[in-house]
Amino acid sequence: MYTEEKKVTQLATLDSFAYSAIEKHFKKSIKHESDVLDDKDPELLHQMRVGLRRLRTAVDVFDFAVDLPKPISDRTISKIAHSLGAVRDLDVLTAELNSQQQSSLPIAEQNRLETLLKKMNKQRKRDFAHLQQTLKGSDYDALKDALKGWLKKPHYQSIAQLPIQEVLPDLLLPLISETLLHPAWLVNANFENGAAIVHSIHPEMLDDFIKQHGPTLHDLRKQMKRVRYQTELFVDFYDSAYAEQIEDFKAIQEVLGQIQDRAVLQGYLGSQIKESVQDVYPTLSKQLDQKVADALRTWQTLQQRYLDPEFRKKLRSLI
């Protein structure tokens, strides 16, 4: 049974819904700005980055219905989010290496990591200085001023008068189709007699697998992030099965993120030394391999499900 608030949402037109989405994520984007500039908490920086990503999604989704000033552009929002991301990525790497250093690593590997962490801290200071310049720069100020001005006096395209429910399938079905047609679903898989077969990955082939298929899996991760953020905009228009599906999108994004994190960490370690990572950090490498092997097993279970024709049909029908 719908609440009164949900009933109002169901009757919303495109213009009012677009306005609410853009306003909500703009406010979330700038909520922690001063704390981020003061570098008070890495989590607040992460929240600001997520807010900007969701703002970018809202602007992109409703681009056909709203008339936004030029400073409110995908390029500008991406540039600011990228500055936040450079610092955030180092924070994630540092946290992972700190946790590994505190585990059962040999003293020699711990000492090497200690030296590397100091180097990473210097890099973070440089990246954070660039972030401060970005958040104090003219592009960011112009973006904020343009959004504040538009929220005071919004402008729309003619199609924005349509009830939101009439256009939901047109907004979401292309997104679902793009996701289902992504080549990553067929990584290490093939069809036999019409049925999808996902082949297991031998532990000794992990490095080769990541090198060959990592970029494709990472691209699907980015697509799952888009599909998650866009479908979350419309969760109030669907039942609990839709909300559960969004959680499924999130699970795929996260497990692919774990695989990507391993690739990034392995690549970063390799860029800092002349020898192989396995030779310099043998124990750490084994621990990382175990983590990525666990993540790949989870991924392949999800992969098998998304290759099932009945599941794909059900997903389309859900929209």
From TrEMBL:
Pfam families for this protein: CHAD
Residue runs in coiled coils: none
SMART domains listed in its UniProt record: CHAD (SM00880)
InterPro entries: CHAD_dom, CHAD_dom_sf
Boundaries of every CHAD domain copy: 11-312
Top-level taxon in the UniProt lineage: Bacteria
Protein name: CHAD domain-containing protein
Protein source organism: Phormidesmis priestleyi ULC007
